[in-house]
Specification:
444 residues, Growth Hormone, Chain: A, two-stranded antiparallel ribbon, 22 helices, globular, disordered C terminus
Length: 444
């Protein structure tokens, strides 16, 4: 790795500990404690990706300001809003729940506004710093840091909240988020400045029609729209299902949700060495198939075709983390390859905005769908079709659509799906697990 770039990993660690609280399951559980509707939960889940649309106007200024300065300014501002969010639960007793929800939505909007603008510089900055042959290794290592940090912060949150959390306990974990956000700024400031990648000139700003004429980029966007529609709000509504229909306590839900990050860490066993060698395309297809199986499992659980237990819920959370991390790593790496050098900031902005806006709209639509279904419970084909089983079934279909678009993606020297599967089963570190399994399995 180039000198100084290892600070990226420390930044990723503390940044993950901050945003997994303010944008993840702890925030969903706090909103549920205020009796927020499914539509409100969808707005909370969709606000962050929707604000990424601001990358399009921001891309006009990021090259002249500088990637590092642009990102550092935005991350500083958003840390202030994280600190203010920690004060909202303390208003219980003199502020009604509706006012707390409104104040919460306002602060989350301002947080995501500053993040949406400043994130325009992140991918171009990292692409400028990390050499092309090392990007797959970098992405998997960064994902490992994020997942490990998220696992720890979810465990801490579960311990702080307990089974029947008081408002001050939510304030404590939001305060932890603010502290971690401040520490992450120290390491962000230590990341080296970018090398000059593109000169600021009018010719380096391609028009949108010209970008869409690039077939590999256009096909990547199409796949991302289908994937974002399916992925938008999966964890949010899985948590809402466990809290709303299963009535499980917050501590149990957070501990089970932490298995999602164990699934993300498992990618080190599967694709840490394969992403650069075999390419992103076969990994995307493999991850899409895994997503379909996972959402089919959630559909069966929500429809009472499978009994809901700790082991099954934990396995499904693990699968969400494994499939999601695998898909995201391969997706970002393919975007780095597909975006041309000329106008790279603008290509990354369009890539981020298209996927993120879809990712932001999706949970709002799914929240409206859940609220519209209401108390519906219709038995058909061995499944009870209620508001959550209907939602998870729709998401299964959308993940199938995303998988069907993966073979159309274009990537130079990408391996076939069969070659990737052979590497996963035969050459990666998972083979040691398989050997132990087969040796322990009786024969006869």
């Amino acid at each position: 790795m180039p000198p100084g770039t290892r600070n990226i990993y420390a930044f990723a660690w503390f940044n993950a500990m901050a945003f997994q609280i303010i944008l993840g399951s702890p925030m969903v559980l706090y909103a549920k404690s205020l009796n927020a509707s499914a539509t409100t939960l969808g707005i909370i889940a969709g606000m962050m990706p929707l604000m990424v649309i601001l990358q399009i106007p921001a891309a006009r200024f990021v090259d002249s300001v500088g990637y590092r300065r642009f990102v550092l300014s935005g991350w500083t501002v958003r840390s202030v809003f994280v600190a203010l969010t920690a004060l909202v639960p303390l208003g219980t007793g003199w502020l009604p729940a509706s006012s707390q929800i409104a104040l919460l939505l306002l602060l989350l909007f301002l947080f995501n506004l500053s993040r949406g603008i400043s994130s325009c510089g992140w991918l171009p900055w990292i692409t400028a710093l990390i050499p092309a042959p090392l990007r797959g290794r970098y992405l998997t290592m960064e994902a490992s840091m994020v997942n490990a940090a998220s696992l720890i912060i979810f465990s801490i949150s579960a311990w702080v909240l307990g089974t029947h959390p008081a408002p001050w306990q939510f304030s404590v974990i939001f305060g932890i988020s603010a502290t971690c956000s401040g520490i992450s700024l120290i390491f962000l400031n230590r990341i080296p400045d970018e090398r000059g990648v593109e000169q600021v000139r009018a010719a380096a700003r391609p028009r949108l029609p010209d970008m869409l004429r690039l077939r590999p980029f256009r096909r990547l966007l199409a796949m991302n729209i289908a994937y974002a529609m399916a992925n938008g709000g999966v964890l949010t509504f899985a948590v809402a299902f466990l809290k709303g229909m299963a009535d499980w306590p917050e501590q149990r839900i957070l501990l089970l949700s932490s298995l999602m990050f164990v699934g993300g860490l498992t990618n080190q066993l599967l694709i840490a060495r394969l992403l650069d060698r075999r390419g992103s395309k076969p990994v995307l297809l493999f991850a899409s198939c895994f997503w379909v199986i996972t959402l089919a499992g959630w559909t069966a659980v929500a429809g009472k075709a499978l009994p809901l237990g700790h082991a099954l819920a934990g396995a499904l959370m693990f699968a969400i983390g494994l499939a999601g991390s695998m898909m995201n790593l391969a997706n970002v790496r393919l975007a780095m390859i597909t975006a041309p050098m000329e106008g790279r900031s603008h290509y990354f902005a369009i890539f981020s905005v298209v996927g993120s806006v879809t990712l932001g709209i999706a949970p709002i639509l799914w929240g409206l769908l859940v609220d519209a279904c209401g108390p519906m419970a219709v038995a058909w084909a061995g499944i009870e079709w209620n508001r959550f089983s209907v939602l998870f079934a729709v998401l299964t279909v959308l993940f199938t659509t995303a998988g069907a678009l993966c073979p159309r993606l274009e990537e130079p020297a990408a391996a076939s799906f069969d070659e990737l599967l052979g590497d996963i089963l035969g050459r990666s570190r998972i083979r040691y697990w398989l050997r132990l399994w087969f040796r322990a399995t009786p024969r006869g």
